[in-house]
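Morning F.,

Quick status update on the modeling queue. The single chain you submitted on Monday has been processed. Sequence for confirmation:
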Amino acid sequence: QVQLVESGGGLVQAGEALRLSCAASGRSFSSYTMGWFRQSPGKEREFVAAHGWSGGSTYYADSVKGRFTISRDNAKNTVYLQMNSLKPEDTAVYYCAVTRSRLGLRLTSLQEYWGQGTQVTVSS
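Structure tokens below.
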């Protein structure tokens, strides 16, 4: 059974950092793109970052570029999201997801498996 489990969320103040982890099980995702999405109340789920399996390329939403860093450890079947200089607008439930699509890295509709999410709250 495929399972993605996020951890590391919490309550922090603006300017602080947080590191999220997503541990996958059930199969190896070394040939999948692994990424992060987030959703705030009243807003649609949006792309945050992705780490492609081909060449190890990384992709970021403009809103987090320069502040967030995505990484992965294929041996551990785990993807991470280091979030620095957090802002109140980063407050959301963060989800990890995987896809075999190379064109749809940023698209929620093309993700094949999702985690349950972890809450990140940034106070001002």
